[in-house]
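[Discussion] Sanity-checking designs against the backbone

I'm trying to build intuition for which residues belong where. Below is a structure token string of 78 positions. I'd appreciate it if someone posts a full sequence so I can compare it with mine line by line.
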């Protein structure tokens, strides 16, 4: 059972890291589109919208994992 919990934590961390990398990727794509200002390319707001959507997904995923007890936050220092 302990190995199962450890594998859940590792999978959760990998998913969060992948989503964060995708967020950064979309941010840079929107930046390049903004700098080029080519009307034939995809709109910058599409990539920024994806970034915001995935940011919300990461936040919900972390809160859900904390509520289910899969991860525990660091204790507050006194």
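Best answer:
Here's mine. Compare freely.
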């Amino acid at each position: 059972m302990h190995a199962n919990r450890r594998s859940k934590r590792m999978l959760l961390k990998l998913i969060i890291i992948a989503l964060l990398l995708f967020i950064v990727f979309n941010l840079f794509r929107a930046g390049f589109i903004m700098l080029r200002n080519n009307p034939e390319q995809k709109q910058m707001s599409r990539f920024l919208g994806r970034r915001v959507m995935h940011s919300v997904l990461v936040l919900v995923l972390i809160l859900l994992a904390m509520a289910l007890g899969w991860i525990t936050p660091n204790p507050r220092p006194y």
